[in-house]
Amino acid sequence: MPTDSRRIAGPESSTNPYSFCTEKPRHDLLKNGKRQDGRKENNLRPIFLKAGVVSQARGSAYIEQNETKVICAVYGPREVVRKEDFSMKGLLTCEFKFAIFSCRERRQHQQDIEEKDYSVQLLEALEPAVCLDKFPKAQMNIYVTVLQNDGSALAAAITCASVAMADSGIEMYDLVAGCAVRVAGKNLLMDPCNQEEYKPEDETGLTNSGSVTVGLMPSLQQVSAISSKGEIEFELVKQAVAKCVDVCTQLYPVLQQALVKSVSERQNEEG
Amino acid sequence: MVDVLLSDAEKTFIIHGIQDNLRDDGRGCEDYRHMEIETDVVSSTSGSAKVRLANTEILVGVKAELGEPSSGKPDKGRLEFFVDCSANATPEFEGRGGEDLALEISNMLTRAYDCPKCLDLGKLCVIKGQQCWVLYVDILLLECGGNLFDAASVAVKAALYNTCIPTVTVSQDEGHVDIELSDDPFDVQHLDVTSAPCIVTLSKIGHSHVVDASQKEEACCLARLMMGVTEKGTVTALKKEGSGSLDPSSVEEMMETGKRVGQALNKSLMEVLCLEEQKGKKKEKTGFLR
Amino acid sequence: MYSSSKPAETAKISVRAARPLEYYRKFLEKDVRPDGRELGEFRPTILNIGCISTAEGSALVKLGNTTVMCGIKAEFATPKTEEPSNGYLVPNVELSPLCSPMFRPGPPGEQAQVLSHFVNEVLNQSCCVRKEDLCIKTGKLVWVLYCDILCLDYDGNAPDACILSLLAALKSTMLPAVKYNEETEKPETDSVKTEPLHILSNPVSSTFAIFDDHLLFVDPTVQEESLATGTVTIVTNDNDLCLVQKPGGSPVTADQMNTCFERAFSRSKEVLRLIDEILHSIER
C-alpha cells in the first residue's frame, strides 16, 4: 500500500485477531423453525428511524435495525462544478461508506469496490423517486455512512437515504423503502443479520444460496432497486422479490411517522 | 451508458414499433442481433475471445498467474475482472470518462461469477492457503453498439472456455515445497464453463421489454434489468439499472423472459464453442480483418 | 425554512445572518451568548459508551449538536525492530462530507490532518496507554489499536469532542485473550474471553475561542469558530498539564491564560465524573 502522508500511518501490515480463533463457531440458519436470534423466517428486526439528526445538513436521517446502524445526510442543491456535468435535470450523487470500525474486519479509509458498487445501487434506487427536473443545473449530494454492519446494510441505507432526502424538503414522487432477504434452500429469511447474510466463501452445499435486496416506492408500487447475489432457482427469486415488495409496503408507515415527527419537532422549535 | 442523441419523434417511432413486436432493425422483442465469436485470437494470453454483436465489439484476454489465494477462500483460485473502456470506442471514454461504466461491468461480472457452482475454482488451487492460480480476465471494449453487458459476459465465457492452464506438480521434502511447471505445452488443464452464467439485459421500453437493445433503443429506455443466467435457468445475479423504476408485475415478466432467453443463449453459445474447438487449428482465422 | 410571522423574530434572524459579528457583540456585552450559555459554559455533553459491538471499544459523544464517534479496532502486527516490545496506537480523525457542507469527499483536508496530529500528540504525551502493555510476544507480535474518530455532525469544537470520545472508547476497550503458540509461532485467539485495556491517566481537552481580541469563551460552536480571532486548546492529564495548543491568532495575557487553566481543570473533573457514571451504569 502506498504511504499516505495525510493520515497517521500504522504498521505496514496487520491481521485480524479473530482469524486465529482456535475454534470457529458454526451456526445453523434455522433450528426448529427459529433463527439464531429467535426470530421466525418472516420476522423483521425492530426498526428505529429518526429524521433530522445532523444539524449542519439540509436533510438527514438515522436508522437502526438492531445492530445495523446507518446515518445519512443530504446537502444541496449546490452548483455543479464540472462543466461536463451540466444538465437541465438535477444531478444526484451518492457516496456510500462503511465506517472503518463498522465490520468484524477493519475497513479501509478509501472507498473499496463493494462500497462503490453500493453507491451506484443506492443512487439508482433513489433517482426515480426524486423530482430531478425541479432543480436544473444543480446537484444534490447524498452521503451515507454505515456505523455498524449487522446485515442488510444496503436495504437500511436505501430506507435511510430516502427519508433524509424527504427531510431536506426536496420534492419527491414517493419515498423508497428497502428490504433484504436471504435465500437458503427453500427458506426465505427476511432482514438477515450478518451471520445469516450470503457469503460466497462458506459453502453450504445448498443448490439455492443467495440474497436479494429490493427497493420499492410504496405508494406508486414501483420497484426502484433490485439486486441479488449467489445462485438461486428462478421460482425462488420470484418468491423472494414478491416477499420483499410486501414487506416494503408494510414499512411505509414507519417512514411516514419518522418524517411527521421531525416536521412537528421543527415546528415546535420555531413556534 | 454511451448516449446517442435522439429526437422525441424518433423515440416515439421506436416505442410504438416495439409495442407491435417490431423493432427498427426488423427484429422481434426477444431476438438477439447477429453475433460472431472467435476464440484464441491473442496468442500471448492463456485464453482469449473476440465477440462482435452487430456494432459492439469486445475482446477478452485471460491471463493465468500464480498468486496467493484470498484469506476467505484458502482452497480456491481467484478470478479477477478488469474492464478497459478504450477511447477508440467513443470519445467519451477519453481520460477517466469510461471509468464508471468499466466499474459497473466488472462489478456485475464479479457478482455473476461469485457463486461456488458457476466455475470450479477449487481446481485452481495449487497449495492450500499459499499458492493458487489467479485468472486475470481483461475485457477490452473496442466498439460500442449497445448491450455491452451481454456481449462482455458472452466474451468472458468464451475466453474462459478457451483458457489453458499449465499443469503443475507440487513436490514436498522436509517442509520445503517445490512447484514444477510442466514443460510440455500440450499438458494443460481446461476449465469447465458449462454452468457459467451469461448476462441478459432486459430494457423496458414503453410498456414492453426487449433483449439486446441497440444504442438507439437504449436511449429510449429508463430502466433495465440485468440478470446472470446459467444453462439450468438459475439466477446468479440481478440488478436494476437506470434512472427509472419498474412495476413489480413487469419485473416478474422481465425475469421470465430473461430466464428463457438466457438459457437459449447459453445453449447456443456452448454449441458454437464446441464447434470452434473441433475445427481446432484448421479453422480460418479472421482476427481483426473483416 | 423560517416561517415564523412575528416581525421581531424575523428581524432577529436577519441581523444574525447579515451581521453576525454585531449580533454577537450585543449579546456578549451582557456576558451571555446567543444560545443562552455563559462564557465559561460548555454545551450539554452526552456520552454513550460501547455503542458499536463490531469494534473492540467505542464511544459516541455529543457536545450540543457536535457529534463524534470513536471506534477502536485491534489487530495483530509485528513490532518495529528498534522497539520490539511496543505496540502501536494509530489515531485518525475523519471529518467526512456527511458532517458539514464545509468538507469535501476525498482524502482528509487540512483541518482533519491537524486534528489527527493533535490527537496523536495527546496520546503520546499523556501516556494514557502504555505501549508496552500492548505487547503479546516481544519482537514477534504486538497489538495495534486503530482509533478511528468519525465526525457525524460538525457544530464546532471538534478537538474536545475527539479527545473525550477517544478516552471513553479506550476505557471501554476489551481485547480478546491471546496465547502465543511457541511451536507454530502463531497466535491463538480466544473467541469468548476478553481483557480490559489499562488506562493510566485521563487526558481531557478544553478549547477556548478568542473574540474581538480580548474576550475568551469556552466550547465554540461552528459560527463562533468562524467569528473568533484565535483559539486556545488546553489538554489536562488528571492534575497535570499535558498540552497547550495556541495556533497563532490574537495574543492572550498571562492572566487570561490562568483563568483558562482553571476552567480546564474544573472541566476535566466534570468530564471524568461523567465517564465514570456512564461506565458504572453499563456495568450494572
UniProtKB/TrEMBL annotation, chain A:
<dbReference type="GO" id="GO:0071028">
    <property type="term" value="P:nuclear mRNA surveillance"/>
</dbReference>
<keyword id="KW-0698">rRNA processing</keyword>
<dbReference type="GO" id="GO:0006364">
    <property type="term" value="P:rRNA processing"/>
</dbReference>
<dbReference type="Pfam" id="PF01138">
    <property type="entry name" value="RNase_PH"/>
</dbReference>
<dbReference type="InterPro" id="IPR036345">
    <property type="entry name" value="ExoRNase_PH_dom2_sf"/>
</dbReference>
<dbReference type="InterPro" id="IPR027408">
    <property type="entry name" value="PNPase/RNase_PH_dom_sf"/>
</dbReference>
<comment type="function">
    <text>Non-catalytic component of the RNA exosome complex which has 3'-&gt;5' exoribonuclease activity and participates in a multitude of cellular RNA processing and degradation events.</text>
</comment>
<dbReference type="GO" id="GO:0000176">
    <property type="term" value="C:nuclear exosome (RNase complex)"/>
</dbReference>
<dbReference type="InterPro" id="IPR020568">
    <property type="entry name" value="Ribosomal_Su5_D2-typ_SF"/>
</dbReference>
<comment type="subunit">
    <text>Component of the RNA exosome complex.</text>
</comment>
<keyword id="KW-0694">RNA-binding</keyword>
<keyword id="KW-0963">Cytoplasm</keyword>
<dbReference type="GO" id="GO:0034475">
    <property type="term" value="P:U4 snRNA 3'-end processing"/>
</dbReference>
<comment type="similarity">
    <text>Belongs to the RNase PH family.</text>
</comment>
<feature type="region of interest" description="Disordered">
    <location>
        <begin position="1"/>
        <end position="24"/>
    </location>
</feature>
From TrEMBL, chain B:
<dbReference type="InterPro" id="IPR050590">
    <property type="entry name" value="Exosome_comp_Rrp42_subfam"/>
</dbReference>
<dbReference type="GO" id="GO:0000176">
    <property type="term" value="C:nuclear exosome (RNase complex)"/>
</dbReference>
<keyword id="KW-0539">Nucleus</keyword>
<dbReference type="GO" id="GO:0034473">
    <property type="term" value="P:U1 snRNA 3'-end processing"/>
</dbReference>
<dbReference type="GO" id="GO:0000467">
    <property type="term" value="P:exonucleolytic trimming to generate mature 3'-end of 5.8S rRNA from tricistronic rRNA transcript (SSU-rRNA, 5.8S rRNA, LSU-rRNA)"/>
</dbReference>
<keyword id="KW-0694">RNA-binding</keyword>
<dbReference type="GO" id="GO:0071038">
    <property type="term" value="P:TRAMP-dependent tRNA surveillance pathway"/>
</dbReference>
<dbReference type="GO" id="GO:0071028">
    <property type="term" value="P:nuclear mRNA surveillance"/>
</dbReference>
<dbReference type="InterPro" id="IPR001247">
    <property type="entry name" value="ExoRNase_PH_dom1"/>
</dbReference>
<dbReference type="GO" id="GO:0035925">
    <property type="term" value="F:mRNA 3'-UTR AU-rich region binding"/>
</dbReference>
<keyword id="KW-0007">Acetylation</keyword>
<dbReference type="GO" id="GO:0016075">
    <property type="term" value="P:rRNA catabolic process"/>
</dbReference>
<comment type="subunit">
    <text>Component of the RNA exosome core complex (Exo-9), composed of EXOSC1, EXOSC2, EXOSC3, EXOSC4, EXOSC5, EXOSC6, EXOSC7, EXOSC8 and EXOSC9; within the complex interacts with EXOSC2 and EXOSC4. The catalytically inactive RNA exosome core complex (Exo-9) associates with the catalytic subunit EXOSC10/RRP6. Exo-9 may associate with DIS3 to form the nucleolar exosome complex, or DIS3L to form the cytoplasmic exosome complex. Exo-9 is formed by a hexameric base ring consisting of the heterodimers EXOSC4-EXOSC9, EXOSC5-EXOSC8 and EXOSC6-EXOSC7, and a cap ring consisting of EXOSC1, EXOSC2 and EXOSC3.</text>
</comment>
<dbReference type="Pfam" id="PF01138">
    <property type="entry name" value="RNase_PH"/>
</dbReference>
<feature type="domain" description="Exoribonuclease phosphorolytic">
    <location>
        <begin position="197"/>
        <end position="260"/>
    </location>
</feature>
TrEMBL record, chain C:
<dbReference type="GO" id="GO:0000176">
    <property type="term" value="C:nuclear exosome (RNase complex)"/>
</dbReference>
<dbReference type="GO" id="GO:0071028">
    <property type="term" value="P:nuclear mRNA surveillance"/>
</dbReference>
<dbReference type="GO" id="GO:0034473">
    <property type="term" value="P:U1 snRNA 3'-end processing"/>
</dbReference>
<feature type="domain" description="Exoribonuclease phosphorolytic">
    <location>
        <begin position="41"/>
        <end position="176"/>
    </location>
</feature>
<dbReference type="InterPro" id="IPR036345">
    <property type="entry name" value="ExoRNase_PH_dom2_sf"/>
</dbReference>
<dbReference type="Pfam" id="PF03725">
    <property type="entry name" value="RNase_PH_C"/>
</dbReference>
<dbReference type="GO" id="GO:0071035">
    <property type="term" value="P:nuclear polyadenylation-dependent rRNA catabolic process"/>
</dbReference>
<dbReference type="GO" id="GO:0034475">
    <property type="term" value="P:U4 snRNA 3'-end processing"/>
</dbReference>
<dbReference type="InterPro" id="IPR033196">
    <property type="entry name" value="Rrp43"/>
</dbReference>
<protein>
    <recommendedName>
        <fullName>Ribosomal RNA-processing protein 43</fullName>
    </recommendedName>
</protein>
<dbReference type="InterPro" id="IPR027408">
    <property type="entry name" value="PNPase/RNase_PH_dom_sf"/>
</dbReference>
<dbReference type="InterPro" id="IPR020568">
    <property type="entry name" value="Ribosomal_Su5_D2-typ_SF"/>
</dbReference>
<comment type="similarity">
    <text>Belongs to the RNase PH family.</text>
</comment>
<keyword id="KW-0539">Nucleus</keyword>
<dbReference type="GO" id="GO:0016075">
    <property type="term" value="P:rRNA catabolic process"/>
</dbReference>
